[in-house]
Amino acid sequence: MPTGGGLMKSIFLCLLLLNILYGLWQLQDRSAERALREVADQTLEEGLPVVPADAEVIPLVPPVREAAAPLCINFGTFSREVRAEQLLQRLLALGIQSSVIEREIPGEPDFWVVMDIEGGRREALAQITILQDRDVESYLITEGPLADNVSFGIFESEEEAASRQAELGNEGYPARVQRVNQTNIEYLVQVAQEARRLVDQALLTRLQVDFPELQQQYQVCAENKEAQQDQSSS
User: Quick check: 58 pLDDT over 90?
Assistant: First the structure.
């Protein structure tokens, strides 16, 4: 049986051994935690892209959907303004707010047979005097991009103009064929957007009695179309 001194020594050794084991356990636990942190930091550094400090940051903004342009009813088309005015007065008498609009459309081109003159209108008039004395039909062009030159006529087809050019060339008069594009004007009656509800099939049937050429179209209202064109050009 151990004595009192031996018992105390045994207890001391046991406590010392426990402290050593506890210290080793703490050391091992901290090493494992540090290793886990290093692995996690390395994963983040490799997985996330590096953004330069001076890079422009673009905020994510949802796209804004533009409101659809309002549609108006167009009646037409008319080659003469007077017909559009007649329909306009008819609609206004029925309390339907409307207006006449006009638009340019491409027309058939003309073909001019032209002699170019250097020196302006005075030289052109002098040349015309000489040509007419020789019974060559010719005219002074007074306006447009061909102004102050001599015209030998305007033709509907390029073949006719080329034939006249060849005749003049055989007679010793230099000439060329110039294509001139033409534009025509057509007229429509536009019913205002707020008055669209007043236009029904019964009204269309009555209008077509007096306006058999009448056609109905839904198009962007004239004022909104002009605003869109201004925005696109600015």
Answer: no
